[in-house]
């Protein structure tokens, strides 16, 4: 039995329930406005279920209305005076309206009526005295007919509003009661929860489908762009590189020779970017073999030790005491580790620390995982940047951290191995983690 029903059934014994929940009032409905004046009607749990049903059932077309929702709303009209009055006072039609027509209109209008929250900011304070007056009116309504509730609308409105012009109430539409109250059910709230859960499920499925479609289109766009760049730009880059190298060999001035070498280096960098985009869009087949990830971590650490020392960066490589055997493409995983190390070193610039480490995670609910961490003391990474770090088309790169196509390449390597890669950052430092599952290690 809901709170309002309980109050009505016991109104003679308990005219002043002791708490807000016993009163069955959950707030107020949007205000009724007339000539710069406002009146507020209470929101009961009966009305709240009906309104929630109306909102969840609402469609773009007024005529295409769920009949179950219509019955729920018309039944609430017959149970709840303030809800009926609110609908009538908001009704934009003529002087006659059927209960069914009023319900259909309300279901169509409900989302717009309740979406704007400005009216809640302007709502007056609701005191116990207001709630007691509403409860007395509600208890008295048990002995009268709905048409009498309409005639006595002023009593409801004046609890939270100025005095009412009697002519206004007399102009309210007459209701043609073409419905009957549904038998009271104790599971209306449960049904509402089910409706909301199903609606949310549909939203999640739609979001998932749109995300998958967006990912597919992103890869297709990357592939088309990569092929175009490869064909249209690689050839001019090769000519620029060859000409710059030839000029550098013939140049006697050391400064001009250095400038020409920089041109060659930038050409190589542009070529690597195109190659990275090509890899992201159309990667080669994965050539799996059993590999000890410890060996890859050691190899990457040794390879970048001299580069890190050149920039006064301390590079630590920490492996596990036991073998970390997993079936992967050795060259791809090693390249992903190199990319993360290069990103960290470039982010620090000079005078910092990079820690390359291994970790094993055993979770009974999924395959065991090997984690490869690359932590650095460089600039932090914002939440927004971490979301788009692996997106080749993201333009919001942060100063001090590359986040370019190299990370997109590492992301693609992780994808090809059913692995994950993530970046987490704070005000200082960043941690990149590759999580590689090992199904063969599951017991």
TrEMBL record:
Q: Which SMART domains does this entry report, sorted A to Z?
A: HATPase_c (SM00387), HisKA (SM00388)
Q: Which domain of life is it from?
A: Bacteria
Which InterPro entries does the annotation name? Answer: HATPase_C_sf, HATPase_dom, His_kinase_dom, HisK_dim/P_dom, HisK_dim/P_sf, Sig_transdc_His_kin-like_C
EC number(s) stated in the UniProt entry for this protein: 2.7.13.3
**Single GO term (MF):** protein histidine kinase activity
Q: What class of enzyme is it?
A: transferase
Q: Which organism is it from?
A: Stieleria magnilauensis
Pfam families under this entry?
HATPase_c, HisKA
Coiled-coil annotated residue ranges, if any: none
TM region(s), chain numbering: none
The record's annotation in PANTHER family points to: PEROXIDE STRESS-ACTIVATED HISTIDINE KINASE MAK3, SENSOR HISTIDINE KINASE
Reactions performed catalytically:
ATP + protein L-histidine = ADP + protein N-phospho-L-histidine
Keyword list (alphabetical) reads:
ATP-binding, Kinase, Nucleotide-binding, Phosphoprotein, Transferase, Two-component regulatory system
Q: Where is the Histidine kinase domain?
A: 228-440
Protein name per the record: histidine kinase
